[in-house]
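Hey, can you fold this one?
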Amino acid sequence: MSRTRLWRYGWRRQTAEPSSGRFSRSLGRVLVYEESLGYRSLFIETTGIAKASKLAAALPKSVRCMASSFQYAFASLADHQPFRWQERLYDRFIVGDIPRFCDLPTGLGKTSVLTIWLIARAQNPALPRRLVYVVNRRTVVDQATTEVEKLRCRLQDPQLAPLAKALGVGRETPLPVSTLRGELADNGEWRADPARSAIIVGTVDMIGSKLLFSGYGDGRYLRPHHSGLIGQDTLVVHDEAHLTPAFSELLHSIVREQRKAAEPRPLRVMELSATTPASREEVVFGLEPEDDLGTVRQRLDAKKNLRICSVAKTDLEGKLVGLASEHESQPSKVLIYVRSPEMAQAIVKRLGKDGAGARVALLTGTIRGHERDRLARQDPVYQALLRHEQPVDETVYLVSTSAGEVGIDLDADHMVCDLTTLDAMIQRLGRVNRRGGSDRVACVHVVEEEGEARRAKPSEVDLAIQATPDLLARLPAHPDGSHDPSPRALRDLLGGLVEHERRAAFAPKPEVQSLSDILLDAWSLTSIDEMPGRPVVAPYLHGLTNEPPETHVVWRKEVTLLDEARADDDTLTRWFRACPIETRERLRARTEVVEKTLMALLAKHRKDGRAGDFPALLLDERGRARRVRLAGIADHHLAYRTVVLPVEVGGLTYAGTLDGTAVEPVADVDVADISEKEDETRRRERWVFDQAGDGEPWRRLLTGEARSSPPLDLREVRRIALDAASEEGDTGVRRQLVLMASPRRSALESPELARTRQTLGQHTRCIEGHAKRMAAALGLEDELADALVMAARWHDRGKARPIWQRYASNADQVEPLAKSEKYLHWRVLGGYRHEFGSLLDACRDPSLEGPAERELILHLIAAHHGHARPHFAEQAYDRSSSLCANEEAAHEAMRRFGRLQRRFGWWGLAWLESLLRAADAMASQTASETIIDRAAE
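Sure. Predicted structure:
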């Protein structure tokens, strides 16, 4: 039969000798042969995973390999046999030996670390149960996301049921993942159940801010929750670590602090890079001589011819276009790299004028997430460069900035680029003729601006760029005068450089800010929104750099409604925490560019007589919002903040870039809603409820769809009065903005206000059950497990107060409610926090005097909604108790937090808190899904 797929099964020499021959000829055949490295390997030749599994089951028991074998599992998940370095890395993972540094060339599948960890985790439960894969913030479309999405899908295959079962996942409970983009972006699944294996793919900003208790856009509830779950029982894989050295140092500093504090499940860190500094004192995991075979050798020796030419700066654009156009006669895939987004856009326009048109695609870091996803999934040019085996009928061009240098499995036939630093050049070269082959030879043209070598006051980056051509000239020379920039040649070049030469040609390292216990104490006080002297976390993530600050821009339809209602800052902040801005909504650009473009956009509107000004909203890094006017936007501090614009203002092109002349809104300018077509479990919709007019009072904000009632399969998450005279819950309310979401999403993001009816007794029993199951799955010590269950039993006792039951619209109050389908306005509570009432009751109860972990129980009760870190505001006090009792409980809560944080560590205590929060969310989700099931019946 013809060979279409090869599945490998291996074992040590000392095991029983396998039998060779044919088994079940209709399925395939078995080949056995001796390898030179002390392994005897069994190869099964067949047409697919299912047949391979049946054939393996027909083998003699002494040689049978079940689905738990690494080779079979890897091939089933990745669609190819593992390289030897991948097998060696698995051998280390399986015994808990995680290397700190991995130096591997581009093109050899570094993202397979995700697959290796997943298989090893199924075999060794002692490995960290969450993997956080950190990519550089410049990455626009990351290969790690593609790998994660494939793993999630493949684990649904019945043939991999043993692996899925060992990981605690299945068809009803798929692998929890959250990624930078697409339908899995920011879905929160990874935090739903801390006992399950999970994968998170995020940027340095996204992961780093959460690690430091300062998650961008997170409120006091999520800050410690995210920090605890990422900072404990987690393996952080830092991809292309050489690009963000400050973050690498931060991670290792966190590990050192956790060890000093003896935290229960400290962070594990592994750095991946194709250019690991030679000065590393630690042993670096990398390729060994035995790895240099087959596909690895083919990729290391991929044929490329590099030439460097010089042009005047004014001729750079024309030279790049001219060199790229030389490939028009022979259909091929051409990659064009430039450092400037403006230059990239100019090249796209010029190629379009020259007749390339639809055969040109643009990839920059300034593209909005929605259009970036569309590019990745639908653009034929981008898809052509991803599918190396697919030829093209006509030459296609992908024009990219640094956003396309890392994290993407591009495989171009030829490349044209401007000059950059040596480390960036290595990344670029890894995207051309990536897979090699005897019949492929890539032409690489590097164009240097003549003025770069004569700049009067060059920056550190300029100096590094100037040093790069001389080093590239050391690459092996071909007879035609070009040089060999194959991965092997580049590794030899780097290995031969002395440290000062490497440092001179690499992008300069920023000054690293030192981490200290004082800083960690300040950041961990998450119940305090504003605290003098507490620094922002950005310098600790990226170091002190000269890079210009950036600003995010978002378009939302509700901006005009909220402005007309004159919503105050607190109301706006609550709305955006309930309906957070997602990755696909964001457009990122330099702050100065945003200011200039918005002013040009407003001037264009005024010139056309459209409007004199527009409302806008401004969100800071902690998610606090306020109303501003577009005309005065430059008067506000925009660096590292988010500007939310009304859709009427325009400013967005179809390609997803910011444009000061684009006054007409594009069709998909507001992409905040998630429909059932994308992901039913994450679905959310914004509606306007208006009783003032005739007809159907419900209108969907995005589409204008009118209804007599809201969708039955969605639950209400938040509503805001759009009439200043009305308040939430008032019977005479006329107009409100309402956020609706799927039961799973609403319970996960807003467990306190999950819109479903559940009595206090029902909720307590449910959360106790989840707490017990979670404690057993995590292997918590008996005393900690008992503390978690006891805290679950007491955490909502404060809801039994009459004031809270009135807020929950429980008129008769015969049986106290924990969850209600309808709540009055939150101001009805007068600031009262039910967990503070629960804390008072627990402190007074004699039954809690005995447990050894009484302090932990009381803290978990007090902190399960983000307060008591370290304080409660006076408004949270229980009006049915004396002022003296309230103050004593509040003061002791602060002292208790300090004692426990010293005992368990910053992330250790936050992790224990997160267990109760997760159990609470699961109990709320159970109640919500029960209500939906009954409605469906």
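Confidence is low (pLDDT under 50) at residues 1-49, 59-68, 725-731, 930-937. Let me know if you want another pass with a different chain boundary.
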